[in-house]
Amino acid sequence: MTQPGHPAAFRTDEPIVSLFEVTKRFPGVVANDSVSLDLWPGEVHVLLGENGAGKSTLIGMLSGIQTPDSGAILVDGREQVIDTPARALELGIGTVFQHAMLVPSLTVVENIALGGPAWSRPDKRGIAARMAEVCAGIGVRVDPHAPVGSLSLGEQQQVEIVRALMRGSRVLVLDEATAMLTPKGSEELGALMRRLVARGLAVVFITHKLNEALAFGHRISVLRLGRKVGEITPDRLTALTPQVVTAEVVRLMFGSDAASAGTASGPERQPFAGGAPVLEISGLAVDDEAVPLADVDLTVAAGEIVGIAGIDGNGQKQFAEAVAGQRPLRQGRIDLDGRPIAALAIGERHRRGLRYVTDDRLGEGTVAAFPVSLNLLLKRVGDDLFWAGGLERSGPIADHARRLVAEYDVRTPGVETPIGKLSGGNIQKALLARELSGEARAVIFAKPTYGLDVQNIRASRRRIREAADRGLAVILISTDLEEVLELSDRIAVMSQGRIVGMVANDRSARLRVGELMSGVAT
Amino acid sequence: MTLETADSPPISPTALRPALRRHLHLIATTVVPLVAALALSGLILALLGVDPLAYYGWVVQRGLLSPSGLEATATRMAPLLLIAASLIVAFRAGIWNLGGDGQFLLAAVIVAAAAPALSGHLPNWAVLSCCLILGAAVGAAWSVVPALLKAWQNVNEIITTLMMTFLGVSLANVLVKLAFLDPRTTVPQTRTLAVADRLPRLFETTVSSGLLIGLVAIVLVHLIMTRTAFGLKLRIVGANPRAALHAGLPVPRLTVAVFAISAALAGLAGAVEIVGVQGNVRADWNPAYGLTVVPLVFLARFNGFASIAFVFLFSVLSIGGESAARRLGVPNHFTLVVVAILLIMLGITEHLDQRRRAAGR
Amino acid sequence: MSALFTEAFLTALILGAVTAGLPLMLAGLGEQISEKAGVLNIGLEGMMLIGAYGGFLVAYGSGSIWLGFLAGAVGGAAVAAVMAVLCVGLGLNQIVIGIALTLGAEGMTALQHHFQFAQSYPRLPAVPTLPIPGLSSLPVIGPALFDRPAIVYLAVAAVAVTSWVFRRTHLGLALQAAGDKPAALDAAGVGVVAIRSAAVLTAGALAGLGGAFMSEVGAGIFVPFMTNGAGFIGIVLAMLARGHPLWLLCGAVLFGACLSITTALQVAGVDIPTDVIQMLPFATVLLILILFGRRAALPPALGVHYVRGAR
């Protein structure tokens, strides 16, 4: 890993933007607690921190989506109130959000024209020409007349960067920009960032990936629980070895005790000894507008964890839903314990022991307004144990809930509390309790630690190991390569709706999986 | 953004005081919009040159305090309770069945045609039972198209049920004028069911026993929706259709069931109104109860028992308003204004309440 | 039945179609604008009624039909303003408030009408027509289409203007973004609330104008509940026209033809009860929904309140 040198070609005696002790509170939470930050021209300033560390709020205040409760934002040394996104743009602060802020039904030029004087006609030709100019300057290529909905996420990001530059942005904020990209795409974005700062821009790059912070950044600030806990200046970053910087950043991110533990949930798994096949999937094909599945074969044995790695949106969701029964198959077989289940409805598959822990916890996993107790029985409504002849038996329902809440350490004021009021980590615990309890045989975990904090990540990973140790067949779908490498016995890589390779989880797995994910290997 | 609240207590022992607070709070958020709506409506009356106090006084006197008025109010409640039950089923399941008027009127017309035809051939109790069942069936049948379109094509049910209502109201008129016309009268109307053959009166009063049917229906609906597995399934579909799918519930079939039950109750309301009160249907008769009951069930937050209270209140307003129309010259369309303002006040109160809660946390 | 396709029949049919279809078109156009921006406007019926009443009242009082049309548009926009504040601003449920506005407008106009015109039922004089030189002397379509009150031409022009705004202006892009991905519009520095409010107000003004047309040109009189579901038909037409103002024009005229065919048939000497004919348009819509329901496209953010920064 090479340290990029500090470009010194511009005035660097004054930061373009300074945050001075900004604080932002939300009900029950201090999202940012007097955070100070300087954004210098010619620098990629990396903001590192876990989910919930306060990165998004900080960006929100830079881009005019939120305003600080106290503290000040200085632009060119003068205090400014950035209360709307329009004001941020006026001050030269452009933001590229994690989820593209483009209208999918409009073309690239139309998106760029958005916000022009209401009654005038968008000058599409002129915009396309200026776009071409900016694109050439920073070395990207975008078709100006393509509908945005037809572009890949990486291309959409490029469009947003180009748009920000066309609006005269001097500060470019990139929010989790690499989260959805292939390793190769991330490399390209890194190179692009370096070309941008070489032109005198200040780039803010938000990530929770350490290696990218070291590879792309000139300056690193670490956020933790809403506070800025440390900053590594450019001169130190060049002076220190990557190992030293890594250790320091890990200590800052996770606290001193976590420096060695990280997110690992325990010792490395014992190599899988082999067992009888439980879940057998062959020739699976599913129709889908975005990513159709074809020729998916996968067999998982009792006690085995098969990881499915891949860039998000390559058919993982479709696969999980098809196996769980939420999508019709075009063709293919699914056998559980040697019996075909592909023709069975969702509920029947669940009764036979097939479990699906969805990643969309509030969207489909739970009914937010319903109490924890009923959410724990969401897939068993009408079960004789809890409904006598269709009539609710509140006693057994509450007992069942209390037992699971205790067993799975769900922190809730009570089992009657609406589940939507719990934190993401506790909702995930409730989901795990629901899916792993009872007569489970095979479990599909979809991004089981997405959006959780370290403690809950650890707890979730422990549950996954325990499930396999109990003899369940486990499919672990994750976009976090570290997680897949930590837990899996074998790793399948999914790309464009197909399984493009299966790798035993040994020393060379990381390299092989990376190659398969980025499409280098065939 | 949520931060972990790792140190929150596992189970709260002090559950009573929050429960009490919740009740008080519920009453406050119900009474405040009610009073505000009555005050604003009174202001409108004053602007029209009518003394609001005299008007409200008359309404209370005629709808609530006088014995005959109270009996009329109780009788009026019967169809309204059934429509409220119809709406509670639909709204709790997340379905906007705004087709109640069509379902109600068509069932009423067909029951009005069937009742005199059947009476004489069957014992009275059998005629009445047949009519009630027929009304429910006609109502349910009139929801088949919106139900199927919603369940399998995901066509917005607001549009389809409204269309079916317009179609149903016209069809009902066509039936009255062309098919079921009573040849013995000059007024275009259906044959009349003799008063003796109608639903029995309650005790020594003029109150129709339709009131009992309405009360039983709404309490039953409330219990089904809150205490049974079937009701829970419907509520899951209503609160989060994707979760329902994820949990393996047969969403299209449940959707059709919701339409069927909801529309059957609206149809039953029509039947009860005919065999209980009207005895026939005149051409162009359309009480248009459907949309006016919507605000009442919202105000009751889809709770059956609270709905009974609000239906009662509305019936007082409505019976008293009809009397006031004759006596004070204020058309009873004024009731529509009260209901509209009430709905808006309710929305604003809930909004302010949410804001207050968000700020207070 | 040989009398069916006489010149008189066809003229009456087309003339009736335009007169009955025009309010639907105006209301539908408004709904289309509002839906494009992401607001489902169930209160359209109420806005039309207020427009009908306000238009009639002012036209009757002032003697100027143009002041009447203006009053109708302002009245509709005033009801829409309530919707804009409550639904776009505060984020209250669009369906609930829409129902409330329709009920309230029904009650208010009936009440007002009772207090002002309970004894007398004044009629407005026939609205003068503006024949278009040359075209108005064509057979059948001349008197039916080109010898109409000036407001008819203006309404058709409104369709063309809307179409132009949708396709050729920054405003069109902003409307589309507000209904499709409001956060993107916000990020581009355009206020979502402002765009949506403007769309709702425009919808109200157009619906009010449609109502005023009904009372001033169509009937010459105000009758309580006279819109009789026209607003709801406008909503359906807007959904079926899928964002194309021109389709809306065609749909509204077809619908108007269904509504007016009774009169035309009476001209031709065929007697069919009005109620049967009145069912035609609704049955047609249902048939269309059954056949093409799946394709009735709605913007993704329709009915969803936009909160900046909410995820």
TrEMBL record, chain A:
Statement: the UniProt record of this protein carries the keyword ATP-binding: yes
SMART domains, per the entry: AAA
InterPro entries linked: AAA+_ATPase, ABC_carbohydrate_import_ATPase, ABC_transporter-like_ATP-bd, ABC_transporter-like_CS, P-loop_NTPase
Pfam families: ABC_tran
Protein origin, superkingdom: Bacteria
PROSITE patterns: ABC_TRANSPORTER_1, ABC_TRANSPORTER_2
Protein name: ABC transporter ATP-binding protein
Organism: Siculibacillus lacustris
UniProtKB/TrEMBL annotation, chain B:
Primary location group: membrane
Molecular function terms from GO: transmembrane transporter activity
Transmembrane annotation, as ranges: 26-56, 77-96, 102-118, 125-149, 161-181, 202-225, 254-276, 288-314, 334-352
Gene Ontology cellular-component terms listed: plasma membrane
Subcellular locations according to the entry: Cell membrane
InterPro entries listed in its UniProt record: ABC_transp_permease (IPR001851)
Organism domain of life: Bacteria
Keywords linked to the UniProt accession: Cell membrane, Membrane, Transmembrane, Transmembrane helix
Mode of membrane association: Multi-pass membrane protein
Protein name according to UniProt: ABC transporter permease
The organism of origin for this protein: Siculibacillus lacustris
UniProtKB/TrEMBL annotation, chain C:
Subcellular location: Cell membrane
Recorded superkingdom: Bacteria
Segments traversing the membrane: 6-27, 150-166, 187-213, 219-239, 246-270, 276-293
A family per Pfam: BPD_transp_2
Protein's UniProt name: ABC transporter permease
Organism: Siculibacillus lacustris
Topological category with respect to the lipid bilayer: Multi-pass membrane protein
Listed GO CC annotations: plasma membrane
GO molecular function terms noted in the UniProt entry: transmembrane transporter activity
Keywords, ordered alphabetically: Cell membrane, Membrane, Transmembrane, Transmembrane helix
Lineage of source species: Bacteria, Pseudomonadati, Pseudomonadota, Alphaproteobacteria, Hyphomicrobiales
